[in-house]
Write a structure and sequence with these properties.
By secondary structure, this protein is α/β, with parallel strands linked by helices. It contains 25 helices and 18 strands. The protein folds into three domains: about 160 residues, Orthogonal Bundle (DNA polymerase, domain 1), CATH 1.10.150.110; about 180 residues, Beta Polymerase, domain 2 (2-Layer Sandwich); about 260 residues, TIM Barrel (Alpha-Beta Barrel), CATH 3.20.20.140. The chain binds one DNA strand through α2, α4, α7, α9 and α14.
Length: about 625
DNA sequence: GCCGTTTTCGGCCCGACTGTTTTCAGTCG
């Protein structure tokens, strides 16, 4: 009897626990058997990595294709596949239980405890029979750890410190939350006299929706000086380690931050190495190895007796020497981008827009199709939002999408108010044409602080356009709270779910599909309703929704608000592969929120989207002409 | 335990930092 309840995370977790216990079981002697166990635990870890990175659900894969499906996943062979099968069927893995009976420690507590690994824990267990984190903490507090052979006062203190840090650690941060801090530190490092350039790398450079730690890279001839400046920043709470080229700190907000300092000639290699992700990096180093080369953070080297650096200054030359085209950081998640880059190198003669790795650009959006105002739950007036969209963010159009009447908490608009708003928008557009909207009202003191981001392809003052729209509420049965004859008077209409989140997947999917089939609805806003780190969103059969969107010519939104980023990257990829059209909106409730558009672009790039797949890269009229 | 244009054995990505190691193991990213 199979009950659908094992996530990829659950499966990866138990495989990691097996790996941890196996590693605890390894003794120091370097005999052949020990060596085999060493690689055995690494195999379990590798399988866990692989599963965590998978976009499909393993349990579904197993139910549909059985063991054979599991065996198709790299790093999963007969032994691990059958253990996954056992776990899905029974919720347990006998092999794990056996290991645990030999070493009855609370593995969960130690798995993510930094600095104290399986080998250290084994020594402690052998001496003191410690099984839990609390017991370890007590033993260290009472001075028992330092009495163990091979341990010291210093190590005991380190253990206490690491447990304290572990208990205080907050896990992953939202990209949008830490973005300003990252930019601030990046600027601080860049402006140091001894630093030639500095950039944030790691998952931040890949623009992952959540960030586990912040990595920085700096180019300098005097690394020691840079490292001292880094660890003495006021943002640093604790120095976790520092050497001649690297430093590790914990920042005041609880996030870890690493710095690597390299000379100019290693910049590209270090950039590549520290941008990750891990699997992408490993794949590259294996390719290097297969070509008789060695790749590390200092460069790409030949393996002659006298090592020669053959690349390292730029990322491009590293990739090219490995017979790959340069891969945008947002794609480096080991999801097929390396194979693509291999083929891409043969396509260099093709026009830019046909290149496989030519993604949507950060300056490609021309409009924003979800903008709220103080007529409902926004903070600013229509004309203010329009002004900032145009002047500060260089947009050509915005759609005003206030909530509708059944969303009482936002004072949603009724039919009359929606039509009044549309009339007002029409008047504002007339004023814009006569160039007397933005000038009289807002230009005086505010423009002084505004950076003009004028782009040559963007149009003149007079062509800015405000589109009448609404974020119509999808009711429990999939119907809307505003009739079609009202919606049809608007330029463009979005629909979204804001209530009844706990309905089963069939009903939620039905609601969304019913909305998509409604001829008045152009876009489904934030299609899954998730709030990252807070709620999963309502359950949706994504493939079915995609199919319906495609059939009805309905656009799906990538909501760029940093705690939504909805659709998420893998669904964007699915939409792109299935020819479903997308837009990227900020969901702005205040002018500063237009900045979220960049996060939406990043998310789209992580889903491998190109410019022509995102509708609001078009001028306003083209966009409207392209709707259903 | 996984994997294979050197396939069924013999490899498995690579280097920095820490501690007490006087040449290395453990841990991490």
């Amino acid at each position: 009897m199979i009950t659908m309840n094992k996530t990829n995370g659950d499966i990866a977790h138990i495989l990691r626990k097996i790996s941890f216990l196996l590693e605890m079981d390894t003794n120091k002697k370097n005999d052949r058997q020990t060596n085999a166990i060493n690689f055995k635990n690494r195999a379990y870890n590798k399988a866990a990595d692989q599963i965590e990175n998978l976009s499909i659900n393993i349990e579904k894969l197993y139910i549909n294709e059985g063991i054979g499906g599991l065996l198709k996943i790299p790093s999963i062979g007969r032994a691990i596949a059958s253990k996954i099968e056992e776990f899905i069927k029974t919720g347990e893995i006998n092999y794990y239980n056996q290991l645990k009976s030999e070493l009855p420690i609370n593995v969960d507590e130690f798995l993510n405890l930094e600095g104290i690994g399986p080998k250290t824990l084994r020594l402690i267990y052998d001496s003191l029979k410690i099984k839990t984190l609390d017991e370890l903490y007590d033993a260290a507090t009472n001075g028992k750890i330092k009495t163990i052979d091979g341990f010291s006062q210093k190590k005991e203190e380190a253990i206490l410190r690491k447990i304290d840090l572990y208990r205080k650690s907050k896990g992953r941060f939202l990209l949008g939350e830490i973005y300003p801090l990252v930019k601030q530190i990046e600027k601080y490092l860049s402006e140091l006299d001894c630093v030639k350039r500095s950039v944030a790398v790691g998952s931040f450079r890949r623009m992952k929706e959540t960030i586990g730690d912040i990595d920085f890279l700096a180019v300098s001839d005097v690394p020691q000086k840079v490292i001292e400046s880094f660890v003495s920043m006021p943002e640093v709470k604790e120095i976790l380690g520092k050497g001649s080229s690297k430093a590790f700190v914990k920042l005041n907000n609880g996030i870890d931050s690493d710095l690597l300092v390299v000379p100019e000639e290693s910049y590209g290699a270090a950039l590549q190495y520290f941008t990750g992700n891990k699997e992408h990096g490993i794949a590259l180093r294996k390719i290097a190895q297969s070509k008789g080369l060695r790749l590390n953070e200092w460069g790409l080297f030949t393996l002659n007796s006298t090592e020669n650096r053959i690349a390292g200054l730029t990322e491009e030359e590293i990739y090219h020497r490995l017979d790959l085209d340069w891969i945008p950081p947002e794609m480096r998640e080991s999801k097929g981008e390396i194979e693509l880059a291999k083929r891409e190198l043969e396509n260099t003669k093709k026009p830019r827009e046909d290149r496989l790795l030519q993604l949507l650009g950060y300056r490609d959006l021309r409009g924003d199709l979800q903008v709220h105002t103080n007529n409902t739950d926004g903070k600013m007036a229509i004309e203010e939002m329009a002004y900032y969209a145009k002047e500060k963010f260089g947009l050509d159009y915005i759609a005003i999408t206030d909530h509708t009447k059944s969303l009482k908490i936002t004072n949603g608009l009724d039919e009359g108010q929606i039509l009044d708003q549309a009339n007002k928008i029409s008047e504002l557009n007339d004023k814009i044409k006569n160039d007397d909207l933005f000038l009289d009202k807002f230009s005086n003191e505010k423009t002084a602080n505004i950076k003009h981001k004028k782009n040559s392809q963007r149009s003149s003052n007079a062509s800015f356009r405000i589109l009448s729209s609404a974020e119509v509420n999808i009711l429990k049965d999939g119907s809307l709270d505003i009739p079609n004859n009202v919606l049809d008077k608007l330029d463009i209409v979005g629909a979204a779910i804001h209530s009844n989140f706990s309905l089963p997947i069939e009903m939620q999917t039905h609601r969304l599909i019913t909305a998509a089939q409604n001829p008045s609805i152009d876009i489904i806003f934030h299609p899954t309703g998730r709030i990252i780190n807070k709620r999963d969103g309502y359950p949706v059969d994504i493939p079915k929704l995609m199919e319906s969107a495609k059939d009805t010519d309905t656009v799906l939104e990538i909501d760029a608000h940093y705690d939504r980023l909805d659709l998420k990257d893998e669904y964007i990829k699915m939409a792109v592969e299935n020819g479903v059209r997308l837009v990227i909106d900020s969901d702005a409730h205040h002018q500063i929120h237009f900045a979220f558009l960049n996060l939406g672009v990043a998310q789209a790039r992580r889903g491998w989207a190109k410019k022509n797949e995102i509708l609001n890269t078009l001028p306003a009229q083209n966009l409207l002409d392209n709707l259903k």
